[in-house]
């Protein structure tokens, strides 16, 4: 399994990397622009990520925009529902506007609040069919 973590907070990035490395190759990006560049390169080389864990509040390009661009690449390539990358939004934001934006407009697969709880993250990943 190929995983991308896009998170600007170094501690959260390290925690996610530690947890998700159990599932497979785990690459890191520290902001939205870097995240979309890393995702885009892998996607264009025919080696897309299976899972992206994406913070909403990111410098240079927020997570909502990164998610829209990921889904745009997939749509342009003809990836339909079921073939798209699983995207888990991870954020300290819990207001309904951000949840609605991520799920209904952006196409997020799941939403996990911070602080990151290992057991809760494993439950979400299990529901998505992601296993170690």
- Structural class of the helices, strands and pairings? alpha/beta
Strand order of the largest sheet: 2-1-3-4-5
N-to-C CA distance: 9 Å
Summarize the amount of helix as a percent range. Answer: 40-55%
| Overall shape | globular
Descriptive overview:
Strands 2-1-3-4-5 form a five-stranded parallel sheet, with helices on both faces. It has helices spanning 10-20, 32-44, 63-76, 96-105, 118-127, and strands at 2-6, 25-29, 51-55, 86-91, 110-113. With 132 residues, it is α/β, with parallel strands linked by helices. The protein contains five helices and five strands. The radius of gyration is 13 Å and the shape is globular. The termini are close together. 31% of the residues are buried. Helix 2 runs parallel beside helix 3 (63-76).
List keywords for this structure.
single chain; 44% helix; 132 residues
Task: Sum this structure up briefly.
The protein has helices at residues 10-20, 32-44, 63-76, 96-105, 118-127, and strands spanning 2-6, 25-29, 51-55, 86-91, 110-113.
List the helices and strands and how they pair.
Layout: E1 2-6, H1 10-20, E2 25-29, H2 32-44, E3 51-55, H3 63-76, E4 86-91, H4 96-105, E5 110-113, H5 118-127
Parallel strand pairs: 1-2, 1-3, 3-4, 4-5
Helix pairs in contact: 2-3
